[in-house]
């Protein structure tokens, strides 16, 4: 059940004319009052032919007129309107049941608190045999002349709706957490339909802004990028010229006077305000050690996959999880925009995100956005496979925190990512399937698989993609890698229990890992020995002099031996 509280209005008689009229988009047949602040003596034009809309409006507006005459200042926002809609599959609700529902909603909102005889005047109007919805109208001046306390009424009404669903056996919706984006109004949806737009202006702008984030290094760059993309931007600046806020407009979205309509960033989406965009964009990422990736062939796609692997490890331990999930959305936006629309809801929660923790992932998203060349199939498939697992971890983290809306959004994102990953991996598998190792080599590799991943070996070896995985392992072995070790490391990266096709999953992981040169064990041992000697010397200042004094004697003993 959804109760959508609308912006305050000024014309009680005008709203009644709509509720009792034919309706502009839904038919209004046999409108009548099912509940109200005082049913006795209530003029109902739907049931009493002598009653008029004007009489009903005067009846509801009486406290408003008294307050206006007493204070000498007219109230202009006194009309409270809330349509209440059940799910189409819910059972038929009688007038009596709808009356109880309306009473509970106005009590929760603060329109007519329980046990308060001086609350606001209100009515609930229902149309003939309509089990789906009612309309609640109230005038927000109490009988004692005070205004009701309506702050936070939307949350309270939402909680009341969840309880009503339980009590009446209706479809259960998830409890809100105040992080959802603004729903399009009926007027916005009808306007989009009238102009032939697939999306309302708010949804269209949200998609464009999110797509632009990976391309910008700061807020000014973001606004410039959006303007270059044809979006109308209205910045708000202080006397010093500093950017204080912004609003965006869709080309062709004009008001009745032919002027561009602008939407503030915070109304487009809660996480697109200027301060939140700055927190995501204007970061200082530490430079990587110059030798960290020496002799490692890399591309933005490979770097992004490595960043996601780090993210998966951190999120599994709940380290800066919200910050990583927020940055993950930017990387998904840069690689799979269809999935990004769904994942946007999973990026927002009430937990504060320390964005500095996700700078590596965010930088990877920007590298991809700015790269002029596309990825090869195996690199893209590896990245998408890593994103699938990251999204699974994000969904589990949200579930553990009871973020039901975000967890559901992450699960829906998985469908899009699985489709994209299968599409990216298909040509890679086709290319590998054209060649395969000898039967003897396959038997040896199967033995390696049973030794390296005993718990999943049967599923891996019976997976239709096993011959292709064997080819990948043979190629890696030819490059100096040990198949047994590669399988062990790949299986340890992420669990395989939830993998639909474990061999396909291992293909992307091993291709990503085996692109690096095989480790030189002698060089690694020499480097380690050198490091230990340097560390030991640093902690024992006198040792170098003694070592030099006895060096000739030590050399002689070695020669004698």
| Beta-strand proportion | 5-15%
Per DSSP, the total helix count is 22
Multimerization status: single chain
Give the overall shape. elongated
Task: Report how far apart the termini are.
Answer: 90 Å
Portion of residues in helices? 40-55%
What order do the SSEs take from the amino end to the carboxyl end, as H and E? EHEHEHEEHHHHEEEHHHHHHHHHHHHHHH
Q: Which structural class do you get from the secondary structure elements?
A: alpha+beta
User: How many β-strands, per DSSP?
Assistant: 8
Strands of the biggest beta sheet: in what spatial order?
1-3-5-4-2
Unreliably modeled segments: 284-297, 520-524, 533-539, 541-561
Largest sheet: 5 strands, antiparallel
Average predicted confidence as pLDDT: 78
Radius of gyration, CA atoms, in whole angstroms: 33 Å
Name some characteristics of this structure.
561 residues; alpha+beta; disordered C terminus
Concise summary:
The chain is α+β, with helices and mostly antiparallel strands and 561 residues long.
Task: Describe the 3D structure.
With 561 residues, this protein is of the alpha+beta class. Helices cover 54% and strands 7% of the residues. It contains 22 helices and eight strands. It has helices at 12-20, 53-71, 95-109, 153-168, 186-195, 201-212, 219-228, 265-268, 274-281, 300-316, 321-335, 337-343, 359-370, 377-400, 404-433, 439-452, 457-462, 466-478, 483-493, 502-514, 521-539, 543-560; strands at residues 2-3, 32-36, 79-85, 121-126, 133-139, 232-237, 243-249, 263-264. The strands form two sheets. The chain has a five-stranded antiparallel sheet, with helices on both faces. Strand 4 (121-126) and strand 5 (133-139) form a beta hairpin. Residues 284-297, 520-524, 533-539 and 541-561 have low confidence and may be disordered.
